[in-house]
Amino acid sequence: MRHASLAFVITLGCLFTLGACSSSSSPAGGSGGSSASGGSSGTGGATQSGGTVGTGGAVPSGGTPASGGSVSSGGVTSSGGSAQSGGVTGSGGTPASGGAAGAGGAPPTGGSVATGGSVQSGGRTGSGGTTQSGGATGSGGAATGGSSTTGGAQTGGSSGTGGATATGGTATGGTGNTGGSTGSGGSTQPPVTCTPAYTGSDSRPQLTDAAAACYTIKNSLAQAGTIGSLVRDDWDPSAAPLSAPASPTYTVAADGSGTHTTVQAAITAALASGSSTRVYILVKPGTYRELVCIKPASGVTAIPVTLYGADSDASKVIIVYNDGSGVTVTTENTNPCATPSGTTHGTSDSSTVIVSTRQFQAMNLTIANDFAEPADQSSVQAPAMTIQADQLVFQNVRFLGNQDTLQVKSSNVTTVARSYFKSCYVEGDVDFIFGRGTAVFDGCTIKYLTARKTGSTIFAPSTESSHSFGMLIIASQIGSASGSNSTYLGRAWDDSSGTSPNGQIVIRESTLDGSIRTTAPWTTSTQGRAFSASGNRMYEYKNTGAGAAQ
């Protein structure tokens, strides 16, 4: 399932604080893993850049990066120049073109990853992927951490250092920023829930100022655990951008000049290292055609890992593979994190990169799937990445694909899995940002490709109906290389494992170009259920540009 189209202007950056939202407990749900601990945030990150993966030929003709396929992309910044910096090392392709929308130039032309594939009308084929690992909710010693007077907010540390819970510590033991210990204290703040109120038409609902004050980055990422008994840890990765360390723990270089020649080898070493602190993996410029699984071995304590490129040009480091749903399963084309249920791959296990360990971070690189989805099929997906763990951060990372480019998932429908995308670039052409995870896209460029199709959808959230926070898009640029008034912002994905109606998304203070449908930008769900402002919970707030509500 997927549709959409995108071009980009200038991001706006108005963030709200925790005020103006109602506090209450949500209905009881199932069990799930707790949020993770530890993890630092880093610094800044450059805007997305273009570049090609292959050595020539355009992918619409069927080639892959290894044989000539192009995975170049667009994306612009407000400075007037193209964010693209050119092709990657060793390639013969040309960089993506485009002028800065902010300076009057033409929107970027982008670049498709694959060809073919008609709009999918239903859900995805198969499942795949493994569940995330982590401690059980409440493992931080709920009853023994002290009361709110002696072991809580007053003496147990702030949410940034000790975790939040009314009974003496979060299930995770603290936020990812500081790595507080489990059960070391906590606050008595109740869970956050938002009550949407909107103006405008039912087909294009606009949040009121009071309602929008609740849908902020901080509130979206403030709590983890099991829906129905969420725990506040006030995780806020936006407070401290990622930065590169003085020296890496491991170095990946295809030419043998590092500690490892493949990304997976370095990841495996990092997760088995037994390190008590974050492990940093530097990936030198190059194209790494491989499947990557980021998951600790059974029985091994998860270790926070940061995977990064040294250059702000994210096109210089490319991790890419060409796998898709329906492809026959082999040892070579199966991601180590995947567990195919049959003889062919499903959606999740077609992913180039799968992240199933908490507190993972990535910066200054590209993750792509250049599988050529055929034009005569309607249900072929090829994700660049699937994530299903808590407290993940991606900064200045490009995600390239067509249908189902980026899946933000969780281990099960009642477990909250949070991720934060800062200054990232995502491209595709059918539901290419989808899933039930809680994800914030802050200052990102989201581009709908038109080479294969027009009139499709960008977002497809499947947020559980009892959870207030699904996807938040803020201060971002959304559009396409071409097309006018034809691209849908999104639709609800009726995930068979969840309850319907589901899905939740807020797009706020972002720039929408003229390719976005102005009258009814939200369409029927994957099972044909009509869009409902109250049922699907898809809202906007103070967006600008030709595609914004008039």
Overview of the molecule:
It is a single chain. This protein is mainly beta and 550 residues long. Helices cover 5% and strands 22% of the residues. The chain has 5 helices and 30 strands. The protein has helices spanning 159-162, 209-212, 217-220, 263-271, 533-536; strands spanning 22-23, 192-193, 198-201, 204-207, 223-226, 229-232, 250-252, 279-283, 286-289, 292-294, 305-308, 317-321, 353-355, 361-369, 385-387, 392-400, 406-408, 415-416, 418-422, 425-428, 433-435, 438-442, 445-448, 457-461, 471-474, 477-480, 488-490, 505-508, 511-512, 538-541. The strands form 5 sheets. The protein has a 16-stranded parallel beta sheet that branches. Strands 10-13-15-17-21-24-27 form a 7-stranded parallel beta sheet. It has a 3-stranded antiparallel beta sheet with strand order 6-5-18, with no helix packed on it. β5 (223-226) and β6 (229-232) form a beta hairpin. It is globular, with a radius of gyration of 21 Å. The two termini are 29 Å apart. The model is unreliable at 1-186 (pLDDT under 50).
